[in-house]
Amino acid sequence: MHSTQKWLNILWILVLVAGQVALGLGPGSSAQAANNPQSELDTRVRLIMDQMTPEQKVGQLFLVTFKGTDARRDSAIYRLIVDFKVGGVVLRADNDNFEPAGNTVPKAAELIRALQNHVWDASQTQDRTAGTQVLPYIPLFIGISQEGDLFPNDQIFSGMTSLPSLMAIGATWNPSMAEAVGNVMGKELRAIGFNLYIGPSLDVLEVTANSANTLGVRTFGGDPFWVGEMGKAYVRGLHLGSRDQMAVIAKHFPGRGASDRLPEEEVATVRKSLDALRQIELAPFFASMQASVESRARMDGVMVSHIRYQGLQENIREITPPVSLDAEAMRQVLTLEPAATWYQEGGVIVSDNLGSNAVRRFYDPTGQTFDARAVARNAFLAGNDLLYVNNFVEPIDNDSSTTIMRVLDSFAQKYREDAAFAERVDQSVERILKLKLRLFGEFRIDRVLPPASQLAEVGRSQSVALEVARKAATLLSPSAAELNIRLPRPPESRDQIIFFTDVVSARQCSTCGEQPIFSVDSLKNAVIRLYGPAAGGSIIQGYLFSYSFLDLNTYLNNPSGLAALGVNLADAEWVVFALSGDNPSHPESQALRRLLNERPDLILNKKVIVFAFGAPYLLDATDIAKLTAYYGLYSKVPAFVDTAARILFQEQSANGASPVSIPGIGYDIIRATSPNPLQVISLYLDFPVNPEITETPITPQPTETLEFKVGDVIPFRTGIIVDQNGNPVPDGTVVRFIINTLGESGTTQQIETVTTGGVAKASYRINLPSTIEIRVVSEPAMTSQIITINPLNGEANISTEVPTPQPTLTSTPTLTPTPQPTEEAEELSETTLDYGFWDWMTMLLIVGGGGVGIGFIGQRRISLRWGFRWGMMAVIGGIMAYLYLVSGWFVPLSPLASAGRWGVAISSLIGLLSGWGIGWLWQIRLQKAQKPTRKP
After folding, report:
1. Which of 329, 558, 744, 882 could form a disulfide with 843 if both were Cys (CB 3.0 to 4.6 A apart)?
2. Contact, 151 vs 504, CB < 8 A?
3. What class of enzyme is it (predicted)?
4. Domain span including residue 130
5. Is residue 421 part of a domain?
6. pTM of the prediction?
7. Rounded CA gap, 445 and 679, in Å?
8. How far apart (Å, rounded) are the C-alpha atoms in residues 352 and 806?
9. Who contacts 863 (Cβ-Cβ below 8 Å, separation ≥6)?
10. End-to-end Cα, the chain, rounded Å
11. CATH number for the domain including 717?
12. How many domains does the chain have?
């Protein structure tokens, strides 16, 4: 009794503990745990704001720039951040904020450290006597726009890892590559001291034959889904690399991929409906906005571009303000989901540069006047939380700092006089402070500044760029098969090669020396390093010649001026062009086009190879037709130059695919990301799968028997549907499941759904006991596997058929071959078989009846004893055969496992006869043993 009571007590304690655990894991508990950090953050922000003056609050609204690297106490930037309490600074190369090559990174870190220390020191040396308000310490945002691909998209040209352009990342079609690049970018910028990243660009590039888009390679691509996927991965990488101490401000919201001019120079207009904006321009931003905070793929803010949208602003006229200055347009965008939720949860809105020529020309096309206070006020009241001001100077002032100080004074005065304005300021300051607290945890200088030791790791991650280059390199024209005919071999040792390079150089500052970014001999030197005398001697250095596009342009104008170029060009077997982009301010960038159009005789019967290290869509169809091979590299950093050299010598293939449309080769990104018409779409029953089964069914599988009845719901799904580049189709691709009910009253039903992760799912309720045939199409992919369901007495025989693909049109030669999708899923023909009552009864009748019959035969032929033995052996054999069948051991050995009830009957009969045979052999063996032996 005592022992029983003891065990009951233990059981009761376990029940109580389990109840407490269940309560602790319930939704109410997790919600409370999730709300506590936010509640604590709100409390901390309110405590800080209660200590702030109007001047300190309005100062938090501004991201300012300054000239030079002087941050001493008598400098203008010192006054702005210490006396006027400005909350953020952006460093730019064109403002001479960086030192020359060799000192760029350490001096930038030193400047940032000085700026942050000034603000910290000022907070620690305040007069703390009675009656004096002590202002809280609030660290600075230190921002930069560092997009990759060096000049002109980067601010720091040397000292950091040379990372590729966004388009090069997009050409890998691999979000893990975007995350890897973002990780390096975040790690190195944070080590220098930056905590605000202005980027990445989430614009969806629209390229047409007559487009004048100026984004170049500053975008991940032209498909909204893939731009969103790459953008999320890049944001995640930035957060991980910076250890969540970098605020990411994506640009150019709501998207400027369809604009026809630079928004920095003029307010562009995009005539698209709101639905079109949601599906294309806004889609990548929304993808990041709705990502979970835990995934780190959610952007912290957006930079609003100076651009007009007909879908938001209806009838657009010259006086219609850009979205960045239009409160109603901003409200419309921020009330769309998921932007509304993201904004409510603390998303920060940052204006694009309010001192740009676009803003100046909007307010005064003559450029004679500029009312900085009105511009800043309008931008703030339009909904921007942070006002980015560069070159923000009125004509009456000598420098921008004077103008900014006047604007700050006017904001502080209006804060005191206008309660509605003050409330609006408080809302933005609250967002800004929450973001800063999320970055640093506490406002202490040791939390704000990175350890000095991290600076040693900057510039040591070149392998990432090389991996991106290998995956991104694309053969644009001709097809791979045609290229093998045109170029059966690489250059040989005595082949002469002439290189023409569209040279790019830049100055890190106005007083710095010229710094080569893409030099005249970049590609030639890469070839010598990889294939010259020190690397196997595949080529002779004296047979290589390099010239700039400026040299070529000069030669076309006056051949006698550069006679050596003419001689080298005439003797060369290989003519290689390295394009860096299309710069209207540099006429020499058109040298290749001039050569192709004006003097095609100079390259007649030569192997003409073009590598596009910039945008791949700048040449037209006529130009490309004159080339032997045209490759897209998308970035001019050194790793991509080395990759081009390897491609030239056929050591590496170019299997990437362009992420943007290229009219010159008939490549359209919408068609390229549509389902490949040559594929056979896999089709599966969507039951729980065995994770150990990872093979995709390639050939028709054995018939499977599952139990279904009228009224049951059949769930099914596709495998991964691939596009014409071999990648999963974008989410939202339309898929139609076609269900045919066969028989005299046959019907056809279609279920339309969309893909997620390349896979579409649907379900169907069985309404009639008729044969059902299920297939799937996703235009233009019209061929799929077929599931056939044959209901029989409440059961269904399910088989998978792979139809013979119908002849289709030849795919566009510029598209890369499409690999078949690999799906880690259970095959349609399950190997786990289910046998019911009637199968057991079938076995029992055969084995029981057969055993009795065999026993009767044994009794009549031999004796009662052997009749019993034969009957028992037969019964045992039949039962054993049935047990082997239902255990699944016959699956890989015999078609009996998939033959349904006939398989049960045949297996039982075979076992029955086998048992009888063994009994018969037993009887013969005993009979011989008992026979008397004759003596000699």
Report:
1. 882
2. yes
3. hydrolase
4. 51-457
5. yes
6. 0.80
7. 59
8. 53
9. none
10. 82
11. 2.60.40.1930
12. 4
